[in-house]
UniProtKB/TrEMBL annotation:
Pathway the protein acts in: Glycolipid biosynthesis; lipid IV(A) biosynthesis; lipid IV(A) from (3R)-3-hydroxytetradecanoyl-[acyl-carrier-protein] and UDP-N-acetyl-alpha-D-glucosamine: step 2/6
Protein name according to UniProt: UDP-3-O-acyl-N-acetylglucosamine deacetylase
Co-factor requirement: Zn(2+)
Record's GO cellular component terms: membrane; mitochondrion
Family: Belongs to the LpxC family.
Top-tier EC class: hydrolase
NCBIfam families assigned: lpxC
Gene3D superfamilies the UniProt entry points to: lpxc deacetylase, domain 1, lpxc deacetylase, domain 2
Location relative to the cell: Mitochondrion
Reactions accelerated catalytically: a UDP-3-O-[(3R)-3-hydroxyacyl]-N-acetyl-alpha-D-glucosamine + H2O = a UDP-3-O-[(3R)-3-hydroxyacyl]-alpha-D-glucosamine + acetate
Chief location bin: mitochondrion
Function: Involved in the biosynthesis of lipid A, a phosphorylated glycolipid that in bacteria anchors the lipopolysaccharide to the outer membrane of the cell. Lipid A-like molecules in plants may serve as structural components of the outer membranes of mitochondria and/or chloroplasts, or may be involved in signal transduction or plant defense responses.
Length: 279
């Protein structure tokens, strides 16, 4: 059990809509309070897709969930906010303007998780009850031994710990304005809202044409990402933090780790997690 805590849900309903990053379409998201023990899950065309690692499919530049031929893309910012703000159980109803679409994407807003955090703060949270009216303990996964995974020059390592601590590093030697950065945070305390949630997604200007040729970032703009040129530096300053790109990687990692949640318990393990040049 996580320090005697009980599972939580939203105290009201959240409804937001906006343009998406990769498809460029507009989607609408409505998040409903959920029953304890049922966790976080998406509803798309009446199909239920749990926000679980079991349904993750490989995709470029975003985290994608897939079940029975239906895909939900770019879920990491929303799930990051829900995990960090302690919303353990909820139903995330999502739809695109085209009723024939078999895939949909979560809106990008300004490229950060700010919109979701503000919406959660506005409606508040409450103790979640199961379908029998009982509260349920909130469990947290833990490590019994160190864990390590790598791919090329990227790696992630996690060590058993008494509390959550995340460190991320990035390295762009050909883009001097970014260079090598590291950022560390307790992740699930008050620092998330102040120092992580508001960090925006970023891209390298010289890679934009290639990404567009692959059918990506059709909805990308200087309003929903910070863009850096290897030659000219940042094209849409000011940054919210000098190390905003690295902080955003922490935001993404929290969203991805949330996918390890089971039955309304926490996804992020009690561990010291270190990630370099995230996958």
């Amino acid at each position: 059990m996580e320090n005697g805590k009980l599972q939580q849900t939203l105290a009201g309903c959240i409804e937001l809509s906006g343009k998406t990053l990769h498809s460029g379409k507009v989607s609408k998201v409505k998040i409903w309070p959920g029953f304890a023990g049922e966790g976080r899950y998406f509803e798309f065309h009446s199909n239920l897709i749990p926000a679980s690692i079991d349904f993750v499919r490989e995709s470029l530049l975003c985290t994608t969930l897939c079940k029975d031929g239906y895909k939900i893309r770019t879920v990491e910012h929303l799930l990051s906010a829900l995990e960090a703000k302690g919303i353990d159980n909820c139903r995330i109803q999502i739809q695109s303007l085209d009723s024939e679409d078999t895939e949909v994407e979560v809106p990008i807003f300004d490229g950060s998780a700010n919109a979701w955090v503000e919406a959660i703060e506005q409606v508040g949270r409450k103790e979640a009850l199961d379908r029998c009216g009982n509260n349920v303990e909130k469990l947290a996964p833990y490590l019994s031994e160190p864990f390590y995974v790598s791919r090329n020059d990227s790696f992630m390592v996690a060590f058993p710990a008494s509390k959550v601590h995340i460190s991320c590093g990035i390295d762009f030697p050909k883009v001097p304005a970014i260079g090598c950065q590291w950022f560390s945070s307790a992740a699930l305390d008050d620092s998330y809202e102040k120092h992580i949630a508001c960090s925006r997604t970023f891209c390298i200007y010289e890679e934009v044409e290639h990404m567009c040729s692959m059918g990506l970032i059709k909805g990308g703009s200087l309003d929903n990402a910070i863009v850096c040129s290897a030659i000219r530096g940042w094209l849409n300053p000011p940054l919210r933090f000098p190390d905003e790109p690295c902080r955003h990687k922490v935001l993404d990692l929290i969203g991805d780790l949330s996918l390890f949640a089971r039955s309304g318990s926490r996804g992020i393990p009690m561990a010291r997690v270190i990630s370099f040049k995230g996958f």
